[in-house]
Amino acid sequence: MATDFEFIVIGRGMMGAAAARHLTLEGKRVALIGPEEPADRLAHQGVFASHYDEARITRTFDDNPVWSQLASRSIERYDELESRSGIRFYTEAGCLFSTPLPGEQGYMARAVAVSKHLNLDVEVIASEKLAARFPHMRFPEGHSGYYERRNAGYVNPRALVRAQALMAERQGARLVAETAVAVLPGAAGVEVRTAGGRAYTAGKVLVAAGGFTNLCGLLPQPVDMRATARTIVFFELDERRQAEFSAMPSTVVFAERDEDLVYILPPVRYPDGKIYLKIGGDSEKTAFEDLPSIGGWFRSDGDVEEARKLERIAVSLMPGLEGAPTTSGACIASFTRTTYPYIGFTSSPDVAVLTGGNFVAAKCSDELGRLGARLIIDGALSESDFAEELRPVFL
C-alpha cells in the first residue's frame, strides 16, 4: 500500500522543523505537521510551543562535551541557513559567564575542563577586571568571568523556525498547519490523524512535540521526561537604557548553588515594536502531567512570586534597570532522566521520538534535527552521533 509520504515529522518547533529540513536535503518526501503560533494566546485552547520568543542564548561553552559539540555543529551551519533562507536569526553578541571561582567540582569546574579538552576560545577575566570590561553590570563580589566572544550570542527562535520550515518547504516538504492527535502504526505504514479530522500516512513518523510529547497520546509508550514551569521577566527599555545595555553579551550569572543561576538576554526588539531585556532562572516549582494544566500555564504570565524575585535580581545586577516597566511570561523546560535529548525509536519500529531540550537545546536544535533525520533514514544513530547518550528512556 502506497503512503502519502516517506516520513512525517510531528511538531513545528525548533527540533521538528530542523528535522524536516534535513530530511528534504536527502530528497525525501516529507510532511511537517504542527499548528501555527496562536494569534490570541489567552483564548487558545490547543497546544503551544516554547519557541514563541525572540531571543535564546547560544554558545559552545558547556559543562558537558556532548552538549558542547551539539551546539558547535549547529552554530557552524547558522550562516548557511541564514544565507539560503534570507532570514536572519543569529546575533553574535558573545556569551559571558559570571561565577564564583570554580572549585574542584560543580558546573563551572566541569565547563572549564570541557573548554580545555575541546580547545574552545573562552577568555578568562579576573574579578578585578570584570567591571571595567562590562560596565553595565554590578557583579557579585568575588566573581570572575568566562567570556566566549565568537560563535556565541543569541538566536531568535521564531525566526530560526521560520528559516527551517521555509527551506524544508522549498526543498519539497509539505507543511501541514494542523495539530496531530493520533499516531497509528500498522502493517503498511503509520497513519497520523489531526484535530481537523484529516489523516496522513507515511513509512515512518518522528514525534518532536517538545513538552507536549507525553501529553497528547502520540507515542506507544511515554518517555521518562518531565515538563516543568519556567517564568521569565521582560524589562522595557527606553532610549537611554537601550544605549546603556546595547553592547552587552548574553550573560549567565551563577550564585553559590548552581541551580540558583539566572540568564540574561541583551536588548531585543519584540513583535510589539518595543525593546526588551529578558531575564530568567532555573528554579522549578511545577511539573505538568496533563493538557489542561500545561495549557493554563502557557496562557498565564508565569509565577508572580518568581517574577518579583527575578526583577530584584536583575536590578541588583544591572542598576540601570531600576524603574523600567516590567512584564512577565510563562515558558516550559523539558528534562529527561539522562540529561540528554532523546532521539530513538519507540516500541514501534516505525515511530521515533525527538525531544528533551533540558533547558539548553535552542542553541543546538539544528544538529538535533539532523540527528532525528539520520535516525529515521538509517534506522539508528552512529557512535559519532552520540547514539548511546541520546538513547530514549521509556516508562
Automatic annotation (TrEMBL):
Gene Ontology molecular function, alphabetical: flavin adenine dinucleotide binding; sarcosine oxidase activity
SUPFAM superfamilies associated with the record: FAD/NAD(P)-binding domain
Spans through the membrane: none
Pfam family, one: DAO
Superkingdom of the organism of origin: Bacteria
Keyword Ion transport found: no
Keywords, in A-Z order: FAD, Flavoprotein, Oxidoreductase
InterPro entries in alphabetical order: FAD-dep_OxRdtase, FAD/NAD-bd_sf, MTOX
Domain FAD dependent oxidoreductase per the UniProt entry, residue ranges: 7-371
Cofactor names: FAD
PANTHER family per UniProt: FAD DEPENDENT OXIDOREDUCTASE DOMAIN-CONTAINING PROTEIN, PEROXISOMAL SARCOSINE OXIDASE
Name the record gives this protein: FAD-dependent oxidoreductase
Organism: Rhizobium daejeonense
Taxonomic classification: Bacteria, Pseudomonadati, Pseudomonadota, Alphaproteobacteria, Hyphomicrobiales
